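Researcher: I'm preparing a figure for a lab meeting and need a structural model of a single chain. I don't have an experimental structure, so a prediction will have to do for now. The sequence is pasted below. Please return the structure as tokens so I can convert it later.
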Amino acid sequence: MTTEAATTIQSIDAILQLLKLGGIITVSVYEGHDGGRESKALLSYVKTLPQAKYHVGRYELINQVNNAPYLLLIERLA
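Model: Understood. Here is the structure written out token by token.
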């Protein structure tokens, strides 16, 4: 199953409304297929989250040659 940017962003937004202080959301993102364009939209979205309210991080394996997935982490601060 391949996810779509619009529904993934809607899901993240809904979860953020329920997330308690100090809570963390993780999202595994895989760009190595035709639907991989979704990652650009996801990155654009999470970059707009207010810095005072959320920490947003990206963890990736940089020595992989085959488009390894990366992990987005969103922590609620306020």
